[in-house]
Amino acid sequence: MNTTRRSVLLGGAAAVGIAAVGTGAPALATPNRGLTDPFTLGVASGDPSADGVVLWTRLAQDPLALDGLGAMPGRTFPVLWQVATDERFRHVVRTGVEWARPETAHSVHVELAGLRPGAEYFYRFRVQDHVSEVGRTRTAPAPHSLSGALTMCFASCSHYGEGFFTAYRRLAEDQPDLVLHLGDYQYEYAAKPADVRAVAGPETRTLADYRLRHAQYKSDPDLQLAHQVAPWLVVFDDHEVENNWADEVPEAPDPDFPARRAAAFQAYYENMPLRRTARPRGQDMQLFRRVRWGALANFHMLDTRQYRSDQACGDGTKVDCADRLDTARTITGVEQEKWLLDGLRGSRARWDVLGQQVFFAQRDLTAGEKQGFSMDAWDGYKASRDKVAAGLGTARNGVVLTGDVHRHWAGDVKESFDRADSRNVAVELVTTSITSTGDGGDDTNAGVLAENPHLKFYKNRRGYVRTRFTARELRADFRVLPYVRTAGGAATTAASFVVEDRGRTLHQA
């Protein structure tokens, strides 16, 4: 049988893996004590470097077990992992054992090194007689390599109850080299009457709650497929903890918020392909980081929740809120801001890409002379935006990637939005949600676009954004689905934009 990469990843992985695992694997003293399939949550990879990548899985016999531990026995299991250059594992290049421990919900993080740069690899796991699906991953190109193209998809906001994860499957079918997830990977809310799929468990507050919620999401076959086909870079936004939290300030007064935040961070780490440097310490987690894709792109992954000042003027959309102009207010914190600006100034990459959560460019939501802005976005932290916009102006090509708002947007980033003649310093691409807010509609939002001439595109449908980076240009395709409240919608491209090298301006393709 001639098994192609596409057939393995889009349907044939399990059979191939089981047939091939018997040769070349180290013997494990793991007698079969009656485990049912422990790979119900799939496999994933992430944070690629030029010589390695993180491999992930988490063992769970029953993803919906209410204690969040997947109905796993309370003991440690050895997990065999293998990495090969081919999907049938004829050429295994790395193998080893990691330990899945009950105190980390039987999650496994394998940090690989010593692989070839710019190369495709396949991986799988084994516990007792059970073999996982096969995942595909790749390393980043060599540090000085500018050849070739990068296909990267990015996504945000996937509420399990508000729709089917078909957009993740369509993203997987695009066979990207890299996937960015910009936050709201899961939602904290309990089930609602209008949900089209049953959300398990109460509103998430405890470690067991968050583990259960992540497990339910990870059991979705469309999301599993999106993780299988490419390495991911992930950052959280608010709903991984609770709506609109800001540093140590919850949405509503809550003396237990530090414990809730710590529980959310622990479960997030356990369920994501992150390096050990991201392992939480109580209610703190080091998530901002830089991932280099050869000389083609630097991905500056930001955390705009953990260090921000509380939202100005009581949060929400506010008109003429003077507090948002306070120069002491920050959305990144001092340390992360310095790290980002130093990285932009010192970059030699063709494209410098900010992977972050909330709307960056100015977005006046009020018609007429008065200005109304979302206090949860960078508009509520003008001094922070001005500094980062200036930093983007020092890069050869600056690109801001955004999620959060459940709509597609595209626009130019100005050095100053207070001056009509201000130069462009970057472009911003905003992805809609995977499911959040349901099917959407065809309102053109003409009033808001008229108020903001630097914003060039809007679409209220669910989907994701597919990008292609080369040394000469960046192309962005805004992918949309006609519906998500039922499964199976086809993806189409609503609009495409191109940014030329040193262009700093979006042009519709």
Q: Rg, please?
A: 22 Å
Largest sheet: 7 strands, mixed
**Overall number of strands:** 24
Give the strand content: 25-35%
Query: What is the helix fraction of residues, given as a range?
Result: 10-25%
- Going by CATH, the homologous superfamily of the largest domain would be Alkaline phosphatase D (PhoD)
Structural class call reads alpha+beta
CATH architecture heading of the largest domain: 4-Layer Sandwich
* Spatial order of the strands forming the largest sheet: 11-10-9-21-22-23-24
What name does CATH use for the topology of the largest domain? Answer: Purple Acid Phosphatase, chain A, domain 2
Number of helices: 8
Shape: globular
Domains counted in the coordinates: how many?
2
| Spans of at least 5 consecutive residues with low confidence | 1-5, 12-30
Mean pLDDT: 94
> Regarding CATH, which class of the largest domain?
Alpha Beta
Distance between the termini: 41 Å
Domain Phospholipase D N-terminal: 41-139
Organism: Actinokineospora terrae
InterPro entries: Metallo-depent_PP-like (IPR029052), PhoD-like_MPP (IPR018946), PhoD-like_sf (IPR038607), PhoD_N (IPR032093), Phospholipid_Metab_Enz (IPR052900), TAT_signal (IPR006311)
Pfam family, one: PhoD
